[in-house]
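A student in our group prepared the protein record below, which I am reviewing. I have pasted the whole thing underneath without changing anything:
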Amino acid sequence: MNLRNTKVGEKMTECEFNVDVIAMNDVARHAGDKTNTAVSKRLNMNRNTVANVMKGKERPSSAFMFAFVSAYSLEPEAAGKIFFKYNLPVA
């Protein structure tokens, strides 16, 4: 996901955000959902979609993010760290 922020007269800047798949899986496993089927039932979403997001093959939709945050009672800061992890360049 590329989020771009430009202002008139300024050079375009680009921020990359990644999903912290490991942290997302840790949240689900800590709540007792050891399989993607269990996660999909908790989120009331398609198992294939959930599996693809949980494996990092697909970016989560806003509906997925909202369902995940609600189902696992995540604080906004924790949700932000999972779904909007900065992809900082390594020098």
Residues 1-8 have pLDDT under 50 and may be disordered.
